[in-house]
Amino acid sequence: MKTQDVIEEVKLELTGGVLELEIEDETIALAVKKSLRELQRYWDEPSFLTVPFKSCIDLDELGLEYCSIVKVYRLTGMGNSDDATNALTMDPLFAQQ
Q1: Cys-Cys crosslink for 87: which of 23, 40, 77, 96, Cβ 3.0 to 4.6 Å?
Q2: pLDDT tens digit sequence for 47-69
């Protein structure tokens, strides 16, 4: 959707197509841009990242900007022996959910 389309939508919502709007299109465009800047900090783009095992993983060392970590998965399943048929095929923490 282009800026002019958004301006037309805002005008329709404000006036209902019945009233005459005295606000200039440029003023509405500035308000829309300001609103988008406010909302932008809440938009997230999910990332999947594999990092080597450590007892404490510091994401600052990796140079990542992040808001929160939602889930952590193990790279391999866990089992009682080296036999692949005896190992779990999924992350046990994920299976608990």
Answers
A1: 77
A2: 777 777 777 777 777 777 666 67
C-alpha torsion sign, points 75, 77, 78, 79: negative
Please, which residues have CB within 8 angstroms of residue 82's CB and are 6 or more apart in sequence?
Answer: none
In the chain, the amino acid numbered 32 is V
Spatial CB neighbours of 45, under 8 Å, sequence gap ≥ 6: none
Could you give the CA distance from residue 32 to residue 6 in angstroms, rounded to a whole number? 8
pTM over cut 0.70? no
The residues pairing with 87 across neighbouring beta strands, listed in sequence order, are: 79
Handedness of CA 26, 32, 37, 40 (dihedral sign): negative
